[in-house]
Amino acid sequence: MIDKTQRTRQQKRRQFLNQAAQAVGFASWSALETAVINGLFSLPLRGITPAPSDLGAQSKKSQANSKNERPGA
């Protein structure tokens, strides 16, 4: 069961996220989220340090990409 405090916090969070999405041209946060998931929009991330597990995934992805690149391309 959700209490009033939690509901109010969720409403404020959703309102803030909707404002952020509208600032970049989307009607709502869910529309922006869908566009990001579908690869239609990317968000520049500033001041965010990835978790160590994310860094490992990135290095594996970088290694795979470098193996697929042609020399001089």
Structural notes for this entry:
- This protein is an all-alpha fold and 73 residues long.
- The protein has a domain at 1-43.
- It contains 3 helices and no strands.
- It is extended.
- The model has no long low-confidence stretch (mean pLDDT 79).
Question: Quick summary of this structure?
Answer:
63% of the residues lie in helices and 0% in strands.
Strand percentage, roughly? Answer: under 5%
Compute the number of strand runs: 0
Distance between the termini: 57 Å
Catalogue the unreliable spans: none
**Helix-strand sequence:** HHH
Largest sheet: none
By helix and strand content, what is the structural category?
A: mainly alpha
Chart the SSEs and their pairings.
Layout: H1 4-23, H2 29-37, H3 52-68
Helix pairs in contact: 1-2
Keywords summarizing the entry:
mainly alpha, 73 residues, 3 helices
